[in-house]
Write a structure and sequence with these properties.
Blueprint lengths: L6 H24 L4 H21 L2 H18 L7 H22 L9 H12 L2 H15 L4 E4 L2 E4 L2 H12 L3 E9 L6 H15 E7 L2 H5 L6 E8 L3 H9 L4 E8 L1 E2 L7 H9 L4 H5 L23 H28 L2 H25 E3 L1 H4 L2 H11 L3 E7 L4 E3 H22 L3 H6 L5 E11 L2 E8 L6 H10 L5 H4 L4 H6 L8 H5 L9 H10 L3 E7 L3 E9 L4 E9 L2 E6 L3 E8 L4 E3 L2 E6 L2 E7 H4 L12 E9 L2 E7 L1 E9 L13 E6 L5 E5 L1 H5 L1
Parallel strand pairs: 9-11, 16-25, 20-22
Antiparallel strand pairs: 1-2, 1-7, 3-5, 3-6, 4-5, 8-10, 11-12, 12-14, 13-14, 15-16, 15-23, 17-21, 18-19, 19-20, 21-22, 24-25
């Protein structure tokens, strides 16, 4: 019997059961006496075991069976849950998930399950002492935190730090573990630590320090501190450079040997490499599972549709939208009532069809959000912090194309909040806060956009540190820095000059790769902004379009060329008299409701040939906005609003300034779609 025909169904249902197990395990950790939750986990594990055995994935079936045995003891009140048992179960689920992703990648799903199986059997046998003793080793092998080891040393690094170091090593850099010990007579320990950091940052990047930079700045350390460091310089040069600083007693510089990737630790690998790439969204066409999931009444009412078929359907409908526009134009030119009525009816029908197709492509952001509670739990435990993740609006829907891409940016921002926003329990107590920090992940609709907030109640952003680093990196001049608003200062965090290493050192108080986050979000036609209050927390706000395929736009004329401006970026269209245009710093501006708005001539930007169409008395302007910034796009005339199909310019025209794509109009002409964000920036 060929089981391959059932492989897709097995993968889909296995994902659903593993997600249910993960969600319920997190719930069980907070409600250890709730046997109903254990029953839910047991049912999912039992079904998963049966499916794996049927498909011939023996290692998965074996490990799931042993996990099921432990759950059976718990639900029958023969075993009491504790943190060590929970960790072993979590690790087993991680390994099962790793085997599933191996199957998805074309593997046979095999793995060495002997270690977790022996742990689970020890729990069943009542030998919990062995579990406690071996838990540290298991945590290293299957936990989410990555580690780097040195001869005789152990230096913990989170996943992103290890990723950065591994990429740096591939680029030819040296990775060093540095321990600096100050003399006992040193009076200004913080100043000496700063001098060490300043010297090191001149020839490399600091990935992590122990104690943290904040503790070093406040002299909350004895005489020594340790640093994970990336540089092109050899060890001897680094050692000599630090030793030449006064009041340094000892400098130890040793190479860091990064551990190999653990194939059996899928949680870290998936979330880091692609934020799990929301693999659920890639394989699903809808959210309701079918068959074998314990959901009564769903069979027969829903079907699974391959997402590639939906893509084909969407492409075909896109062509239909183009032809619809052509028919509408022809009907106006011919001016026959029966033809106009038929085209109007077809337009209504195609509009309904468009809504249905777009709805079919919409999936809830829950498919991305539902992996984060587990990630937050593991990261908080690894960092010895107490963090409560609150999720709101998980039912909010987005186009699956957008869903596929937002996982990685959200992982970046969440890890930022936990690693560099939320303080340690001791620091929070000292600041008069509850020991447990709160991170909120919220999604909601507004107009044709979806907004996603990542908010923490941590330490906030050190804007003085941000300014200092921005000036050092040449991103802003000292004179200009004095006039920047708080928001403008925070926006500097997204500049490419703020490399991962600088931010990880906590100089700015935030986390990893914000320039990467911004680039990814803007590539989706969205935007990201940040706001912060020192000591109270930080909020990142992501704005995303509902769909990337068919958008509403304003068509405008510039000489003999037509352009499309997305309605989502437009505030208003207006006509100004020439005498209303003013000059400020040699830039043409207008007064728009009390605000000075700079004008941008599309004719000049795109070097459109002069055809003599311009009006000498009046200027047509499209007012567009990106965040709080505004600009007026000068055009010759407004053609009107129209739904357009967004087409890529292809691989040969990927870097055309201020153009995000093209569309085919009803008369067969091609109109370029303007990227308003690029023009405003």
């Amino acid at each position: 019997m060929d089981m391959n025909q059932y492989l897709d169904m097995f993968i889909e249902e296995s994902k659903e059961h593993l997600q249910a197990i993960n969600d319920n395990l997190l719930l069980l950790e907070s409600q250890p006496e709730n046997i109903q939750i254990v029953n839910e986990i047991f049912r999912s594990a039992h079904t998963l075991k049966g499916m794996a055995a049927t498909m011939g994935f023996e290692d998965m079936a074996s490990l799931t069976h042993e996990t099921e045995n432990v759950l059976d003891l718990i639900r029958n009140h023969k075993l009491k849950i504790n943190s060590d048992i929970m960790d072993v179960i979590f690790q087993s689920v991680d390994l099962i998930e790793g085997m599933l992703y191996n199957i998805i990648d074309g593997g046979d799903g095999s793995a060495d399950v002997s270690a977790p199986v022996s742990k689970l059997r020890a729990i069943v046998a009542g030998d919990l002492s062995a579990i406690v003793e071996e838990q540290a080793a298991v945590q290293e092998a299957a936990g989410p935190a990555a580690a780097a080891e040195q001869p005789g040393k152990h230096y913990d690094l989170d996943e992103y730090a290890v990723t950065v170091m591994r990429q740096s090593k591939d680029a030819g850099n040296h990775l060093f573990w540095i321990k600096v010990t100050l003399q006992e007579s040193c009076l200004l320990k913080a100043a000496r630590a700063y001098m060490v950091f300043d010297q090191l940052e001149s020839v490399g990047d600091i990935i992590k320090s122990t104690p943290s930079v904040e503790d070093l700045e406040n002299e909350r350390f004895d005489r020594s501190f340790e640093i994970a460091y990336v540089t092109m310089q050899p060890a001897d040069a680094i050692r000599t450079m630090i030793a030449n600083i006064s009041e340094i007693q000892e400098v130890i510089v040793e190479p860091i040997e990064l551990k190999q990737h653990q194939p059996a630790a899928p949680q870290a690998a998936q979330e880091t490499a692609a934020a799990a790439q929301t693999a659920e969204a890639k394989q699903r066409a809808e959210n309701t599972p079918v068959g074998g999931t314990g959901k009564k009444g769903s069979a027969g009412k829903t079907i699974r549709v391959d997402i590639d078929r939906l893509d084909i359907l969407m492409n075909l409908f896109s062509e239909l939208v183009i032809d619809r526009g052509r028919l509408e134009q022809l009907a106006r030119e011919i001016d026959r009532s029966d033809l106009s009525e038929t085209v109007e009816h077809m337009s209504r029908i195609s509009g309904d069809l468009q809504n249905i197709i777009l709805t079919m492509r919409m999936v809830p952001v829950e498919q991305v959000f539902n992996r984060f509670p587990r990630m937050v739990r593991d990261l908080a435990k690894d960092l010895n912090k107490k963090v409560n993740l609150e999720i709101y609006g998980a039912e909010t829907e987005l186009d699956r194309t957008v869903i596929d891409e937002i996982g990685d940016p959200l992982v970046h921002l969440l890890r930022n909040s936990i690693d560099h926003g939320i303080e340690s329990p001791a620091a929070r107590r000292q600041a008069g806060k509850p020991e447990e920090g709160t991170v909120q992940l919220k999604a909601y609709h507004s107009g044709n956009h979806v907004f996603i907030e990542v908010k923490d109640d941590g330490a906030g952003i050190n804007k003085e540190g941000v300014l200092k680093k921005a000036i050092e990196r040449g991103l802003v001049t000292p004179a200009a820095a004095e006039n920047l608003s708080d928001k403008q200062i925070y926006d500097l965090l997204f500049a490419s000059g703020f490399s991962t290493a600088e931010v990880i050192t906590d100089i700015s108080g935030r986390g990893v790769g914000l320039d990467v986050v911004k680039n990814k979000i803007e590539s989706l036609g969205g935007s990201v902004s940040v706001d912060s209050v020192r000591g109270q927390g930080t909020t990142f706000l992501i704005q995303l379009p509902l769909t990337l395929s068919i958008i509403s736009a304003m068509l405008v004329q510039v000489e003999n060329e037509k352009y499309a401006v997305p309605l989502s970026s437009i505030i208003e269209t207006a006509v100004f008299r020439k005498e209303e245009i003013m000059l400020a710093h040699r830039q043409k501006v207008i007064d728009f409701r009390g605000r000075v708005v700079p004008l941008v001539s599309l004719k000049n930007i795109f070097q459109v040939p002069d055809s003599g169409r311009g009006n000498d008395d009046e200027v047509a302007v499209v007012i567009v906005r990106k965040g709080e910034k505004m600009a007026g796009l000068v055009v010759d005339s407004f053609i009107g609003q129209q739904e357009i199909v967004l087409k890529s310019l292809g691989k040969y025209l990927v870097n055309v300034f201020a153009i995000s794509g093209a569309t085919i109009l009803g008369d067969g002409q091609v109109a370029l779609i303007i990227d308003c964000n690029a023009l405003i920036k």
